[in-house]
Design a protein that fits this description.
- With 278 residues, the protein is α+β, with helices and mostly antiparallel strands.
- It has 2 domains: 151 residues, Regulatory protein AraC (Jelly Rolls); 100 residues, Homeodomain-like (Arc Repressor Mutant, subunit A, Orthogonal Bundle), CATH 1.10.10.60.
- The chain is built from 11 helices and 8 strands.
Amino acid sequence: MIENEPGVLYDSKIYPHVPSEFARKNLFYAHVGGSYHCTPPYRVQRDYLESYIIFLITDGLFAVDYRDEQLEARPGQIVLLDCKYPQAYWMVKTGRFKWFHFSGNASQAYLDLVYSSRGIVIDVAEPERISQKIDAILQMMAQDLVDEHHTSSLVHQIFAEVLSPQGETDRIPDPVIRNAILFIDSHFNESITLEQIAASVNLSPYYFLRLFKKYMDSTPHEYLTQARLKHAMRLLKQSRQSLDSIADQCGFNSATHFIRSFRQRLSMTPGQYRQLKF
């Protein structure tokens, strides 16, 4: 039994790791993790910890109170918390979960992106894929043979699994998001608004925006800009048209707007891109 943690059963495991200075400055890194078998009254409550934590629930019923939300997580679901916010989590029914605390690299940016698009308790298409990655991290910690570069890669892959819309097409509320994408792809050269895109799928702009971000990991405006830029990139390589003409054909309101958007997202001007050899 793990001391000072009521409700943590005898077969639970916990593994520490002290990250190197290089990992702390440049990588994602795990500093403690484990596999827990818990029963009520297991409960953790804290106000602040300079860390992030991920759980994969494998059995039982897990609950969390975090950022003004009280939610439950069931087997196959992921829970992600930024421990710098007050939080509480506990077992409602006896069960098991895998977990690790992590920090470093782009952790905050990824957590913010997850919350904005997926929430706190997350369904994933293939939880066994995330389970395998967590197992690999925990196994390295258990053997005290942590490859910090591999660990960082695994954490990054977990975020990719959590955020990727790939593999979730069966959960996309067809025809809403797909039809919205078709509308954008068919009208990217026009001056279309969020209201017009939402109206094309018979939703309010506010609800449509939330739904689109949830499944596409971007806003409709970001997707629209990407569609315009992709078409512009093709025209730059396949034609000798002027920047004014390309801007007009791709829905930008001026060549200046086109150049600014291109440089902002691709770190070069349209003219520089046109001169590149691949």
